[in-house]
């Protein structure tokens, strides 16, 4: 259980077999395509004999599928936006499919037919939307002029004309007073809003200049009446057009809602289109000629037989050449991807390692070593039987009743496993939803709590530090073993084993003085610590050409003991978070208990559920974050570097379905 061993795969086959082989490789989801032109393969022979047959990568198919993907996504967004009010919302239920079955069900002609019809409906609805906005604007304008009982253009004469417009309500009195100076002007108020007054003015053309002076003075906003019918008739006609438009829109939305019956097909078409795009993208990394193609990639060693069998299912053995090579040192250092391989108990905790950094290919995977510590720490920080049971049943039901996306499934597995140490520590602390377990049940004396969060605080604090001490020693041990494997023996002493000796020596001294009061133990501890400290100082002197610099380096290294003290103090958060979470839960229970009976069994039930849900969320979040911090800072820093590149096999997006890895009989 460590970093999965990789080999370099090379496939050579006829050019017309490229699509079938890529489909088989994508169905396996276990091969990362390697760029042939950036590999360390000697391609001089190919360049010499086949340079005239090299083919440029075709981008047309990729662009075709990208355009199809855009149309599908636009159509899905459009359906969700416009048809949800007329049809019950219906989304695709996540399912498990193989790539082969998904591709068999994909019919591009049918999908394009749906898309064409949806796009046509979209265009019509867009036109209706634009027209409605225009009609609403006209309705608002006509509503102000509907009481005008003439058609302005039909009531003008050689000597008279009609002027329509509005002014600010604040200027109304002054405006009317100035118009009275023009005796030939007839003024009719048509409409008055909160801020404006609308007028119809009939005037003599000979007085237009005088009228212009007045209208300009009061910023008279002139309107041109555009209709050949009376405003009231135009207003009613406009309302009828709006009503007709609403009916047409409802009919179109009803037609659009019928496409919800095809949503599953369109969703799966989007999934398949992603697969096609990824496959076309992979072709850029191949060597293509008019006669054959060469594919190279990284494959886990335990997938080799599966690959051979999968390819032989799509073409005869004699038509394809498959070779596997061990990675070179240069490839290990600069190119090879990393895939972790752990059992079902440890695998969910890989996400913690990935969040920090994947190990390098030739580095140890810290996940199996970290997992038991994280489980203990998480359980110690949440430490409640009730919360643990909620985690257990919630995760279990989610895993059994739903097909979850792989990332969410890993989280569900993660919390399912962590529910058990949470329950165990809940029994140790004697806590269930913040309440204390009974000490006597059916006349039987129960041992709970084994550790009381109120009376045994110092014991829990010491236990937290002991757990941290054990984890630090484990990290140093792993570092020493890894350095020894690399034949860096002196470094393994100064950076690992000597530090273990120093810490153990100090522990023996403390135990001998505070617990056993034994001078022999104290002396033994001092000797072990002194020898270890001397090793930490002496090894750099041996390794360095300048003994003075080596001695200074050794003394500086020994100063790192203060860092270990700080690390041990960090583990006290195990005690602090465990006690605080339980205390908050108990406080919530007390708050509801103080309520009158009527309130306690009505509002109190809702309140206690809400408060415990909040405390559960905060407890899980704190335990998750602080548990990870202890691993990253205090533990990983002792032996782990990281910096590996994640393994990225040719696969699908798995946006709506989980693609089951193709399994073939060996």
UniProtKB/TrEMBL annotation:
Compartment(s) where it occurs, according to its Swiss-Prot or TrEMBL record: Membrane
Superkingdom of this protein's organism: Bacteria
Entry keywords, A to Z: Coiled coil, Ion transport, Membrane, Transmembrane, Transmembrane helix, Transport
Gene Ontology terms: cellular component: proton-transporting V-type ATPase, V0 domain; vacuolar proton-transporting V-type ATPase complex
Any Pfam family hit: V_ATPase_I
Annotated TM spans: 373-399, 411-437, 457-476, 497-516, 522-542, 601-625
One of the protein's GO biological processes: vacuolar acidification
Record GO terms (molecular function): ATPase binding; proton-transporting ATPase activity, rotational mechanism
Record-stated family: Belongs to the V-ATPase 116 kDa subunit family.
Protein name, UniProt field: V-type ATP synthase subunit I
